Amino acid sequence: MKTKNHTPRRALALALAVLMALSTATAVGYSAILSASAAESVDKYAPAGTALVSKDAKVSISACTNERAGSENSYEMPSETWTKIHLTDGQIGNGGWSCQPYDQEMDHTKPVTVTLELVTPSEVAAVTLFPHGQFPAKYEIQISDDGQTFETIASGNWASNKSWKAAEFGGVRAKYVRLVAVDAVTDNSYVFASAAEIRLTGEEYTEPPVVNPFTDVPEGIFYYEPVLWAVNKGITTGATATTFNPNGNCQRAQVVTFLWRAAGSPEPTKNENPFTDVKESDFYYKAVLWAVEKGITNGLTATTFGPFELCNRAQVVTFLWRAMGSPDSSAEVTFTDVKDGQFYSTAVAWAVENNITNGISATEFGVGGTCNRAQVVTFLYRTYNK
């Protein structure tokens, strides 16, 4: 039987106490919510601003095992429940979490991380940390909006001792904040890190007010929010500075460009252009190549795309359905103009099932009806803004 030694030198500790209830007070001093022993050394690390503290925030810990507290490769006293209480009690104490890196097959030199998921996106200005034991000299602060793709916004070196650490970087919008311990600080090259308290400082993020510049988009009409959303996201612009032209018919080039921008304007992986009517200088050039590459649409012929051909309702919902991966639909549609086996049959069922659009009447979908600008951005809004 292998005996576990829980000394700090052998443990990969991430003892963490995170207090995260979003406060509305400004110029909050951290000393007000710290134990007396730590208060005297923390004031200089408390920049003015709202303390982004939320006990409801989620905490993800990645150590040598890349596993959460409570797993068979982690050590707590005596259970995961106990650990979670001390991870969110807002106190600097002896409670916490540690991973025991004894398995020789494990890679003990990888960076360890603590990720905080804020209750709401916020403008984060600083991260301060009080170690439970030590912290590696080299650190990184990373942020993310989706919890998947992280960007490093600050890095540097902290003294490897038990004192308050701070990283200030100005206001950056984030939903997730990740602290990375990069270096090893032990004789046996384990990455050893600890935290008894982590604090975030900044301001709760609020979306700027949306201004409607268009005289032909009145508040309360079905496409009011979709139009402002599409313009704000850079999916389209107005016909002029003060008009959107909601009733203007949409051409094939416009529809695939709207789709492409809604998808984040991805670069096409292939640069082969078979269409004589699509030039590299055209605003829809990359959008067309992307749409064809993704199977969203084809050309009218092997050598022409038909960018100025008008799009009907069946074509638009089919483009959108394919852009979303051609999902199955269990909806039963009873439109007399939507027959089984048509290229748009499943797309129409999917669009109706997901409240993207309905028929033009109780019995007709209007497959051949031309789609105007207001309708197309509304379909996009109902698909992407969920």
CATH class of the largest domain: Mainly Beta
What order do the helices and strands follow?
A: EHEEEHEEEEEEHHHHHH
Can you identify the CATH superfamily of the largest domain?
A: Galactose-binding domain-like
Fraction in beta strands: 15-25%
The largest β sheet comes out as:
7 strands, antiparallel
Structural class: alpha+beta
Domain unit count: 2
Q: Mean of the pLDDT scores? A: 74
- N/C terminus separation: 53 Å
CATH T-level topology of the largest domain: Jelly Rolls
Ranges where pLDDT stays below 50 over 5 or more residues in a row are 1-56, 63-89, 95-106
Number of strands: 10
Which architecture name of the largest domain does CATH use? Answer: Sandwich
Task: Tell me what you see in this structure.
The strands form 2 sheets. Strands 2, 3, 6, 7, 8, 9 and 10 form a 7-stranded antiparallel beta sheet that branches. The protein has a 3-stranded antiparallel beta sheet with strand order 1-5-4, with no helix packed on it. Mean pLDDT is 74; it is low at 1-56, 63-89 and 95-106. The radius of gyration is 28 Å and the shape is elongated. It has 8 helices and 10 strands. The two termini are 53 Å apart. By secondary structure, the chain is of the alpha+beta class. It folds into 2 domains: 12-204, Jelly Rolls (Sandwich), CATH 2.60.120.260; 224-384, no CATH class.
